[in-house]
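As the next step, I selected for study a record pairing a protein sequence with its backbone structure tokens, which the following lines show:
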Amino acid sequence: MSRTYRLGGLKIASDLELPELMSWDGPSGAPADAVFCLDHVPPQLEAPDHVAPMFQTKGRNEYLLAVPGTGRFLVREGCEVTIEAEPGADPIAVRTFVTGPVQAVLWHQRGLLPLRASVVVVDGRAVALAGPSGMGKSTLAAVLAAMGHNVIADDICVIGAGKIAEASVQPGLPRLLLWRDALDRLGIPPEGLRRALSSREKYFVDSGQGSVCELHKLAALVVLVRQVSCALTIERLRGHYALCKLHSIVHVRRAARALGRDPDIFTALTSLAPMGVTVWQLAVPDNPACLDEAAAKVVAALQS
């Protein structure tokens, strides 16, 4: 394996070229924490415990994802990923699954908690902007970056909680995935940017902060929802309502449940409030003109 990358705090040795990841910048002699191999992946697990339309699991440490037209991905023990692309598959689509759901399963198997969120550091404290795909969390992170705040992760926020004194955010990728309309709104020309998918106008944008390696204390989680009215509102969530919202943003939640992760996820989520992590809901109208106001409300909530 000639390629080594940084994925959070992990050193990855990979047969597959992954330009979305940063090159490994740690000690050259450090052993790999996880290995990504290009090899045959069986169409099904032997005696699986759970079978869903696109994935299977066996125990807590075997996960098989099959994506028609793209390939099969086998994740084992939180340290081994085997990839078999279908003939003629779009290599960008293959990498998208590796850096998306496959990465999230890897973190689940390693006992950490991946959330659907981008992470920005404001005044030394991490705030996670969470929500499903298409909610605008990366665009909002880009607005905060333009205000001078560091982006340390996009789309996947990996936190450790439940067994330690504070909730810490694993370093991610200091780049953002932005649609063409978001680029236009932010005044970023698409020329020269690498597409995230060959058939769609979604691009990788470097946040300009360079390599981010240190852990950051998580101070707040802001869950984005669409607002029917024209008003932009933010409210603090507590108790059961906050917990339900947090459950909804766990990455690959169905796969995590099949892997037996539900008790660990519940423990991690319920430990956030005692660690001082606040939970907010930010209701945003479908109006790009509100982004600056939304960013200001996030900063104000964190400072409060």
